[in-house]
Amino acid sequence: MRKKFLAVSLATVMGLGLLTGCGSESAPAESASEPAATEEAASAKEEAPAEEEASAEEEAPAASSANDKLVVGFAQIGQESGWRDGETNDVQWYAAQHTDTIDLVFADAQQKQENQIKAIRNFIDMGVDVIAFPPVVETGWEAVLTEAQEAGIPVILVDRGVDESCADLYATQISSDFIWEGAQAADIVGDLLEGKGNVVELEGTVGASAANERKEGFDNELADKYPDIQIIESQTGDFTRALGKEVMESFLKSHNDIDAVFAHNDDMALGAIEAIKEAGKKPGEDIVIVGCDGVKGAFEAMVAGEMNGTVECNPCLAEQIFDTAAKLKAGETVDKWIVSNDGVFRQEDAEAELPNRTY
Ligand code: GZL
Description:
Blueprint: H1 11-15, H2 33-47, H3 50-59, E1 70-76, H4 82-97, E2 102-108, H5 113-126, E3 130-133, H6 142-150, E4 155-158, E5 172-175, H7 178-192, E6 197-203, H8 209-225, E7 229-236, H9 241-254, E8 260-263, H10 266-278, E9 288-293, H11 296-303, E10 309-312, H12 318-329, E11 337-339, E12 344-346, H13 347-353
Beta-D-galactofuranose binds near residues 83, 160, 210 and 293.
């Protein structure tokens, strides 16, 4: 018997006027403050001992109507990149536009798997209808996903995947094709280097499917089509701008013959651009720079001539997430992998495309 669900109202977050979605017109959100505000509300519910829960219940809307609403627990990875903030903004904005039919319980795990697992366990205890989360890494989910399955709560993987051994423990994955993304990046690098040169690779979070598969796509495409291009160094920058810059600084100290950088996300590419400039070289000219995500900063860098390409990875998945969650709540089956369609953009595309970028 599921514990009574306490609806966590998003009114406070919406009232702060901080919400924006990928498709909305409003000003960019101060997203850094949103997850904290929402997390605080959510964790207060999740961690409040029984005696406090009563007072929380008095504050929050009665759960009875929640039975009619779609209640989704979303365990977000954190705020590691502009792309991640774009996804968070879109999910919170969409839920705030549909408070009559959706209750979103949002937790921010600060990039720690143990926090995501804790949030998922709280969602199970709260008796949400559906759990959605981007697994920070591919492994270590078997126990908690089994608990969700035993509680009869379907799980949607968002923007990343889990190890094949857990294939039967989630309903669907909504994400991009990272192998395709890596291959597209390799084709841009191969073309701009005219088939010859030395490449360094800034990898995403160790163990993340987005990193593993972008690397697989990039490295295999280079090996298949550009045998005279060598990957001379490859190291994780954990999908963050700061670490991407730090690792690029070390690459530049070790090598004076770097012709291109492939960064598994644009935030690390932007960090690498800073490092290259500080080393007295011209990013986008002396060294080709290609990233993934399609964040606004990448288009601004391309317009400035400091970046050469980005392979889009759509973070605006909220409508698909909630529509799919509603189908799962209604007992419908859905495709095991719902693939996002993404674009490929080069420097010459950037000026025209920049006004269309929403994250
Ligand atoms: C991709 C997503 C990745 C982005 C990064 O779906 O998991 O995580 O490419 C983000 O910017 O940190």
